[in-house]
Amino acid sequence: PRSDAADAGKGQRVMIIGGDGYCGWATALHLSQRGYEVSIVDNLCRRQFDDQLGFNSLTPIKSIHERVRKWEEVSGRKIELFIGDVCDYEFLGATFEKFNPTAAVHFGEQRSAPYSMMDRSRAIFTQTNNVMGTINVLYAIKEFAPDCHLVKLGTMGEYGTPNIDIEEGYLTITHNGRTDTLPYPKQGGSFYHLSKCHDSANMLFCTKAWNLRCTDINQGVVYGIATDETMMHPDLINRLDYDAVFGTALNRFCIQAAVGHPMTVYGKGGQTRGFLNIRDTVQCIQIAVDNPAEPGKMPIYNQFTQQFSVNELAGLITEAGQKLGLSPEVISVPNPRTEAEEHYYNAKNSNLKDLGLEPTLLGDELLDTLMKTVIDYKDRVDQRLIMPGVNWKESQSVAKNITK
Ligand code: NAD
Ligand code: USQ
């Protein structure tokens, strides 16, 4: 069947770990709509972080229970829900036994770099949650579903910003006359990004030691809100973060422009990253699920479609905003992070395109739709949450609170 056919996923049982989050929710619905049997595993810690720090999603999101009920009503398809922590092996093992997945897509980690740099305990939480969770998933696959294909979300930030081209996971090096293909050097720029480097090393080891099927996906920064399924009913709407801890560059700039807050370019703004639309996230994950890794080999995909510097993004959103009658402004904020602000960046991204990805590139029309959706919810924005409050150099052992 074609990849968007109603029975494209026939026979596949996909466990979406982190399925209540931004990427996971959109992916769960995308696959469910195409006939994959989907379950969601999530401990809802992302919602708790918002409660603890006084943040909120731009869009009013429903509880996961209401979301899944509404999805069944709208689509006639069931999503099985398992509420629990992947760091709890008893829970995870029982979930694997019950659902018996053919593929597990692992989004379920603490994913904010600023959160991981708030203080010592959040640094430790991030690495414990992420690294331990992934080790548990690897054990659960080995023990309960050895043929299950793990599709694990990593990040482009694992590579840092080296002064050479970024390959897709592996680099062939000739050293003192001998040649080998080795994991590409990793230089994460926060305790969060480093947790993904550690995950990648652990996965490669387990793939080889236990002959598992694992795919490591180094995703760039995701932007956008709409996917066909999440827009089918207001109760299915996805989350969109705009605060300085969980909000990411392009999404934040759109929201800032919509509420008349200057766009917050950190430092010189030459920081360049790979970006992709959330519509492409769901497409890429379907492609990865449909192409299981060979046992014992770990393919790595760089999952992004376009590169932009932060200054380029601010420029694009200024133009899009002006077309809608807004007057977007840009300010340079002292960079709270430790990162290169001017650097070489050229990352490969052909593996997913070779497997059939048709990118949704950032154009006028797309920015226009995104801006309009954001404007619809702009009254929900608390502008006090926009300026950054977490500084890499000031991270310390005393617990930090963000107060508005
Ligand atoms: P998110 O925070 O919106 O979603 C993550 C979900 O995982 C949340 O619902 C959370 O409750 C859940 N979770 C976290 N720890 C868990 C645990 N121990 N047990 C069970 N559930 C747990 O994040 P997102 O933006 O959807 O990102 C999903 C994945 O993709 C992450 O691994 C992230 O690192 C990666 N990624 C995201 C982006 C991006 O721009 N959003 C870019 C590249 C990579
Ligand atoms: N930036 C600004 N202004 C802002 C916000 C960010 O200039 O208001 C800059 C940052 O300094 C950084 C770049 O934009 O140089 C990207 O920052 P970000 O917050 O958009 O993204 P990042 O912290 O890297 O993290 C996000 C997700 C993470 C994912 C990562 C992909 O939160 O889960 O792994 O994007 S990547 O960047 O490719 O590693």
UniProtKB/TrEMBL annotation:
Family: Belongs to the NAD(P)-dependent epimerase/dehydratase family.
Database matches in InterPro entries: Epimerase_deHydtase, NAD(P)-bd_dom_sf
Species assigned in the record: Bathycoccus prasinos
Name the record gives this protein: NAD-dependent epimerase/dehydratase
Pfam families according to UniProt: Epimerase (PF01370)
Domain NAD-dependent epimerase/dehydratase: 14-302
Entry superkingdom: Eukaryota
